[in-house]
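Example S7 (structure tokens).
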């Protein structure tokens, strides 16, 4: 139950990361009379939210969040191989 609540909290955070920049852009569009800031806000929010979601799922899988390559060892044979993420 506790793990489910943690994931609900995480997903709510990601949802807010996606939606709030777009709403801020919409508010600025109405205030300044522009017509593109809502789209920019939703685009940036989508990119940031997806990046955060991917990093959370990598952490949950036990994989590191940074680095272009990771050295993994095969426990059965003891071989070490480098994989691209």
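Recovered sequence:
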């Amino acid at each position: 139950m506790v793990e489910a609540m943690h994931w609900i909290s995480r997903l709510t955070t990601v949802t807010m990361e996606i939606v709030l920049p777009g709403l801020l852009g919409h508010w600025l569009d109405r205030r300044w009379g522009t017509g593109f800031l809502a789209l920019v806000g939703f685009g940036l929010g989508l990119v940031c939210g997806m990046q955060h979601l991917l990093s959370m799922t990598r952490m949950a899988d036990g994989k590191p969040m940074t680095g272009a390559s990771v050295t993994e060892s095969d426990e059965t044979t003891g071989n070490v191989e480098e994989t691209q993420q």
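Notes on this example. Residues 2-84 form one domain.
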